[in-house]
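hey so u asked for the seq, here:
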Amino acid sequence: MNTVNQTVAIVTGGGSGIGLAITEKFIQNNITTVIVGRDPEKLHQAKQNLGTLCIPIVADLSDLEAIPALVKQVITQFGRIDILVNNAGINMKKEFTEVTNEDFQKVIQTNLVGVFALSREVVKTMLPNKKGSIVNISSMAAQYGIPKVIAYSASKTAIEGMTRAMATELSPQGIRINCIAPGFIATDMTSKAFNQDVERKNKALGRTPMGVMGMPGDIGDAALFLATDSSRYITGVVLPVDGGNSIGF
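ran it, structure tokens below
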């Protein structure tokens, strides 16, 4: 059971990439962090590396029916949820006319509906405490148009709108909602994509004024800031962490 002063966070997609970097920052700051993901091996590895404050739970957030039980499990074990980071997401690269209805719905289900449903259940547990912080993860795909990722772009643009709507409704009750829009971050996923498409990599870096890719830890630092009282008077913002990419030419 949670001790009175222990802060408890949930990070979805916390087993790898940006989610893992956020989890690391939280744990370095003594935050008990429940990592949720679909890959038991990745979660187990993260637990091995990060120790007792890292709590893995295997779950698929596209399965909406299972979300209330997931939240109940965390509350039963720790008594509270102070922070939620909605980081889990899927992408699909396809020509616009080749994207099927099912393709589109699959991305929307995980990236948007899953985020909504989990946030709703977590907010129910935050309201009695009149305190909480939710950090959503958006994308440069919501800042400007990127070809061949129509469903992903739609989902991330919606996340930004949802962030503002949630912040307006919930901030009077002590719950802050903010969003991070990462630029090009050096993860296994982006490295793989860029190594197969050098032209795209050069284009990405060419429009990033700082001229380099970010590190997962850069998103971790921003998430820690937005999740904690360091940002106690900030709500409803979308913070680009992108080396200037979103304003670059």
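The chain has a mean pLDDT of 96. Residues 101-126 form the longest helix (26 residues).
lmk if thats what u needed
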